[in-house]
């Protein structure tokens, strides 16, 4: 168990934190600094029953095959995964493995830039188009995460660091393909919810939707049993697509237990975000997940979040609300305001989502 929640903002004039990569590469480092101590008791064991805790696998090619029977079956499977797990492994997704590996390699090259070179990409506000930093809110955490990050807003306008050379071009192609992928998944999800196929796409104007590229670096940690990469949390938005190098570390919560997400080749992990839980009026649940660290190898993950436009007001779909039997379970809120609220709340499971939940249900 953690002794502290990761707290919201403290004054921005606090001293800037060193990047974890630099700390991890220090020859003198044999233990973690005390402000990186997250766990004081043994880490909870992961689930061991392979049948009860087997992460669903969705074959994307069946969703787009043109065969009505296959599509109907996979949409049922997709809905079950969203209800029972809040996430799934996605295979045969059509994004070239070579492109995924090239983006991960370019991320590694970015993190290998000197601290001085990366300094120009410092960002402080949630809507700064490019932010490079450490932990969660950088200088604003009481317990620090063993993680450096690069976050870039890539849609509706594309931004990206200009170095290393070619990184932006790779990321542009990668993110464009993911938007297409997410649109198809959301069409299937709309159908499963009993809505029109393009309901989410049209209602939330996904042509102008918000897409955030986040790259995470988790260097080897001398005391992985004490540190955390990212604590338990859910994501904002509709769907997050995750890719990673061959080093595992993602864990998802299922039936009260932690389940390891294996780093499978050419496979994405997709998780439900808070705003799909809101839109579905709670039929789908956003997925609580965390990142743990190890003492042997560097893990790099890519988490690409997809949401509506920042000025979109997200509420339960009217077709899924019945004032008597299924009243609206969430208060409507502008997406931008939700992201701002997330920044000032402790990162602790579903803290932010609970702020917009109707309390008397």
Keywords:
alpha+beta; 10 helices; oxidoreductase; disordered N terminus; 19% strand; Fe2OG dioxygenase domain-containing protein; metal ion binding; 14 strands; 8-stranded mixed sheet; single chain; Jelly Rolls; 361 residues
Description:
It holds the Pfam family 2OG-FeII_Oxy. Belongs to the iron/ascorbate-dependent oxidoreductase family. 27% of the residues lie in helices and 19% in strands. By secondary structure, the protein is an alpha+beta fold. Mean pLDDT is 90; it is low at 1-14.
Can you give me a brief rundown of this structure?
The chain has helices spanning 20-24, 60-63, 68-84, 97-111, 115-119, 167-192, 199-203, 274-279, 335-344, 351-355, and strands at 57-59, 87-91, 130-134, 148-155, 210-218, 230-233, 239-244, 250-254, 257-260, 268-272, 289-291, 299-307, 313-314, 333-334. With 361 residues, it is of the alpha+beta class.
The CATH topology is Jelly Rolls
Radius of gyration: 20 Å
Helix content: 25-40%
Structural class: alpha+beta
Count of individual domains: 1
Strand order of the largest sheet: 1-2-10-7-12-5-4-3
| SSE pattern | HEHHEHHEEHHEEEEEEHEEEEHH
CATH homologous superfamily heading: B-lactam Antibiotic, Isopenicillin N Synthase, Chain
Shape: globular
Work out the helix count.
10
CATH architecture: Sandwich
For the record, give the distance between the C-alpha atoms at the N and C termini, rounded to a whole number. 29 Å
* Major sheet characteristics: 8 strands, mixed
Q: Give start-end ranges of low-pLDDT stretches.
A: 1-14
The share of residues in extended strands comes to: 15-25%
Counted beta strands: 14
CATH class: Mainly Beta
Mean pLDDT: 90
Family: Belongs to the iron/ascorbate-dependent oxidoreductase family.
Keywords: Iron, Metal-binding, Oxidoreductase
Protein name: Fe2OG dioxygenase domain-containing protein
Organism: Nyssa sinensis
């Amino acid at each position: 168990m953690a002794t502290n929640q990761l707290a919201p903002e403290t004054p921005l004039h606090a001293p800037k934190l060193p990047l974890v990569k630099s700390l991890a590469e220090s020859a003198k480092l044999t233990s973690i600094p005390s402000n990186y101590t997250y766990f004081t008791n043994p880490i909870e064991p992961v689930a061991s029953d392979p049948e009860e805790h087997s992460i669903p696998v969705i074959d994307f090619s069946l969703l787009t095959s043109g065969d009505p029977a296959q599509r109907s079956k996979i949409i049922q499977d997709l809905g079950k995964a969203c209800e029972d797990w809040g996430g799934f492994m996605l295979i045969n997704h059509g994004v070239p493995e070579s492109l995924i590996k090239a983006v991960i390699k370019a991320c590694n090259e970015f993190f290998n830039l000197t601290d001085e070179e990366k300094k120009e990409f410092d960002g402080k506000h949630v809507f700064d188009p490019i932010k490079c930093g450490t932990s969660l809110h950088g200088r604003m955490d009481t317990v620090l995460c063993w993680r450096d990050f690069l976050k870039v807003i890539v849609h509706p306008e594309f931004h990206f660091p200009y170095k290393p050379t070619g990184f932006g071009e790779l990321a542009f192609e990668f993110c464009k393909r993911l938007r297409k992928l997410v649109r198809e998944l959301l069409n299937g999800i709309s159908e499963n919810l009993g809505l029109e196929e393009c309901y989410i796409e049209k209602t939330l104007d996904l042509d102008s939707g918000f897409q955030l590229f986040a790259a995470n670096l988790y260097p080897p940690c001398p005391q992985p049993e004490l540190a955390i990469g990212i604590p338990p949390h859910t994501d904002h938005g509709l769907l997050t697509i995750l890719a990673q190098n061959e080093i595992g570390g993602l864990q998802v919560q299922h039936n009260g237990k932690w389940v390891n997400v294996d780093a499978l080749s050419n496979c994405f992990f997709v998780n439900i975000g808070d705003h799909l839980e809101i839109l579905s009026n709670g039929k789908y649940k956003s997925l609580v997940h965390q990142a743990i660290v190890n003492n042997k190898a560097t893990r790099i993950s890519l988490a690409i979040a997809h949401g509506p436009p920042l000025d979109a007001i997200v509420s339960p779909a009217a077709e899924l609300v019945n004032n008597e039997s299924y009243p609206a379970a969430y208060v409507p809120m502008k997406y931008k305001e939700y992201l701002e609220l997330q920044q000032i709340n402790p990162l602790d499971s579903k803290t932010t989502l609970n702020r917009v939940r109707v309390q008397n249900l």
